[in-house]
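Section: Multi-chain targets

For targets with more than one molecule, the full set of components is provided together so that the structure can be written out for the assembly as a whole rather than chain by chain. Components appear in the order listed by the source. The example entry contains two components.
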Amino acid sequence: MSNAADLTADLDALVADAVERLADASDLDALAALDAELLGKKSAVTAAKKQLGGLDPDDRKVAGQAINAARTSLEAAVAAARERLAAGARAAQYEAERLDLSEKLGEIRRGSLHLNTQARDRLEDVFVGMGFTIAEGPEVETAWYNFEALNIPEWHPARGSFDTIFVNLGEPEEVMLRSHTSPVQIRTMENQEPPIYIVAPGRTFRTDTADATHLPAFNQIEGLVVDRGITLGDLSGTMDEFVRAFFGGEVKTRLRPSYFPFTEPSAEFDISRPDGSWLELGGCGMVHPNVLRNCGIDPEEWQGFAFGFGIDRLAVMRYELDDIRELVNNDVRFLRQF
Amino acid sequence: MKVTLSWLREFAPDIDGDPVELGETLSALGLAVEEMEIIGEVVDGVVLAQVLDLRPHPDADKIQLVDVDRGDGQPLQVCCGAFNMAVGDLIPFATIGTVMPNGMEIAQREMRGQMSNGMCCAADEIGLASGDDGIYILNDAVIDGAELGMPLAEAIGMRADVLWDLEVNANRPDAMSVAGVARDLAAALEVEFRFPDYEITTTDESVDDLLDIRIEDPELCGRFVATVLRDVRVGESPAWMQQRLIQLGMRPINSIVDISNYVMLELGQPNHTFDLATIPAGRLNVRRARNGETLVTLDDIERSLVPNDGVITDESDTIISLAGVMGGATTEISDSTTEVLLEMAWWDPPSISRTVKRLNLPSEASTRFRRGADWGDNIDRAMRRFIQLAAESGITAVSGFVDVAGMTPDRAPVSVRVAKVNGLLGTELTADDMAAHLTSIGFEVTLAGDTLDVVVPTWRWDTATETDIAEEVGRMFGYENIPRTVPKGDDPGGLSQYQKDRRLVRDVLLGAGCDETLPMPFLAPGDLAKAGLPEDGVTLTNPLHAEESVLRTSLLPGQLKAIAYNQSHRNPDVRFFEIDHVFLPAAEGEILPDEREHLAVAIAGEEAPAAVAVLDALDRALALPNVQLSPSSPAGLHPTRSADVVIAGRTRGHVGEVDPAVLEAYGVEGRVAWLELDLGAVLDGPHGNRSYTPVSKFPSSDIDLAFVVGDDVAASRIEASLRKGGGALLTDVELFDVYRGPRVDDGARSLAYRLRFQATDRTLTDGDVADVRQACIDQVVKKTGAVLRG
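Its structure, encoded as tokens over all components, is:
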């Protein structure tokens, strides 16, 4: 029977041999077999442990420590081998699974939002940020909402300038495709007590033949503020704030006297171009007292301003479209650009 | 309205400055400059010459040989393609070396063997305006003391001038005249404005002995002023007058018409001339037309009149003129006219507007009447100006004017509160400031404490209220001088829930790969029928094109056109959506159509399930309550591949495929999966209610079940039965296979489902799972007649 020193020496040799054999293990199956042989129930270290009972206490202590040390070393060597083999297998998998990501078959293509809607959303968002809500109204209107309530009586020359498209409902020229978004002002004031801060985007109509710069159906946005003490200066400041928010801080605005039957005083508002010239953007003014009265609002208590301008033109300007008809052609080659 | 600087200066000689800056001032006054042009600059090298001889070119028909004297007395030969010259005529002549406005340099040239040593010029070739074609004949245009060889500008007294084309608003009848523009501009520049004295001489004969004029309808005619002109010879008007008319965009006609137009442009007073010989006893009456009356107007068209129309009648009550709109043919001035009745009147703007609109007869004159001409002193001034100009061609006027009064607008002083004006404008002007601004443009102002008593001038028909006057104060103060402020309401801004949901819907559809389309809402007659839909669209009264004469009742026709268009451009498989208005027939008792906001999804090249999948995505995003597909055959859709979309028991639209017959009619290739919803009704209805169920901490069990069931039983019924049988333990149902083929009977299919069971309070035992599985099977078999597949 060997003593503890012999056992220790045997175990050292065993570990040294095992480390070599583990380093040679070429796959996980071989490693599993080695693992069983070195650390399993029939392994040398297990057998050695069973013999501990036969040793005297001093030897038993030394031998026990040697066995534990050998087991620890073997376990570490097996783990290292396993790690080495796993890394190799993973590397082989990576290599085997190499993909060319530019080989694209099928794609998730998000749709495109129409330019008009994009412009409308941007406008709405700017005005919402300025404390406005969004009002909407019908596209087919009566003469009351499109003209009369807006201080445009039946004989007024301005009626002719709207080039109105009428529909075959009611009396002749009583029902029409709205020629501006201003009817929404009336509908809002009829249904809502001041203070009112709204914008009303929507489609409007004129008897224009479609060409590169005209469409019979196009989009406008209308604004209306009715509150106590509203002034022309408020209108001017609001237009300026809107333009800076929408176009950027370097764009300037100016108001020029103009005429609309539904506002008094009336103005055109211009924005500056980079070259210093002015571009007419839309019309505006202080809500005419007759318009307020037509909606049951006392012009002595409340004052307001209104403004309106084209939405399509903003899209045309922003992308330098050379033909506005693209906005209604619905050609995917156009739609998908935006 | 066009104006020239030189003409403005006849009313305000001190108007001066950079033309661009003057234009900015005009724009800031509300007279927007649409175009500015420097006119009357004659290029160097063009001189006054005289035609000495004209003779045919020996070898060419279309050009002739002209000898001109350009000041040295020597005949100089040129070849010329115009034939309107006579020997002795004075003409503009471009000498060798002249660079013409179009960039061409005049050189000595040989034309078919003949030398040409310069060029005879037409007016437009040298940047001048003329009513004539051909070479500009200057016989009447040269100034006294002009000599041959003089630079042309000097010879005809031409100075460079500025022409502005102004956009004049409908409330500014005064600015429809050179004088009116000058009044505004002079006030803005703080220089003097005055009307010249138009001195006239008249014969001793009194107009009262010649004319007898009555106004039967005083509301129609506020003032009727007339006189008689004698010794009339209709000829050409002087060149300076023609030049100005042309500059302002009118074509010279003859001496009488030209004066008439000149006075209208200059002073804004339209006027009319009658051949006095056609008016028995010089008697006129102003009244409204009666039903059935007609008039042959100047343009030889017979007009049927209605009672609103203002007319002028003669002694026999026969209509001879359509008041303020167009004269009659029988009393028109002709070459043989020797005596003229000159009329200047003020007509009620709404009356004129109605007639102009009904007969579609706009004119320079009626435009001024419609906006409200000046009924005050300007009529007398214009009469004198007409007579003064006519005198230059030997026409004489009798003494005095007939001046008949009707009703003119009320010009009682308007009480204007200083505080209200400042409150409207956002200014802090004093009463004196306001008074100064108003008087600068002819308003009469009396200060009365905190208010101004303002008399509005007669040339501002449209200006009548405190607000109108506030606008005038603002205009003269300058809108750009008003401090800018931004009002803030008490409430926060925001989108409504509807508007937010609509954006969410768009986002879902974009995520589903659909592009947003926005066709115009017009359809052609027959488009609805072609799409299998009822032809009850609202029609347009005055469509520009028949193809745009019906309003859509569904988004289907527009989408099919868009798909066909793209297919014809080799893009067959488009995925589109649209959210827009449709116009259903008006409800009983309503005048407006039943206008709704619809949503459409059209997926070309896909079958019905693709549309159902989009509906499911919308359902998830909006949390719609109880969406059911109820098989049906909606108009225009595939009769065996479509269903009503029923949300919370209400039909809100249709889903499926477009009817192949409809696709064929629209020329669309392949299938089109289709979804159309009444989005307004969906979003206005209940939706978006979600509640929390705790996530179970216990394991789940999955089982698969397959049923063979007849094609007449909807899969949705199987699923509903499974859910009923599974109760709370059944957390997921997924249809993962549909089999039709030899292993099942004809007319049936196998539907395979994967079910997941899970409890929130325990781990399910095998027995639990077996029980609930059986409950599911029993429910399906009992409710649908399906057979469990072994």
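DSSP finds 13 helices and ten strands in chain A.
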